[in-house]
Amino acid sequence: MRERASQWGFEIIPAEGQELEDAPTVTGRHDLSFSRRDTGGHVGRVTLRKAQFDGALRITNVEQFREALVNGMGRGKAYGMGLMTLAPLAQ
Known about the structure:
single chain, mainly beta, two-stranded antiparallel ribbon, two-stranded antiparallel sheet, 1 helix, 4 strands
């Protein structure tokens, strides 16, 4: 995620008491697999890797960030993944 953050208009920053190389924290991870029929009628298997990250970020490009927030990020967004929930940092 850290490598792709700039294309989505933000950068990862360490949370308080955290080193940059440890940010963000992966707090959940699992695979979601299902069958899907293509336009030709062939059945294929789709596997999505789902991960939840907790951490802090700094917005670097408001328009790119707004686009990512509204439309989602990554390849799984058509399946309800790639969404972001934001909360202010605790003071």
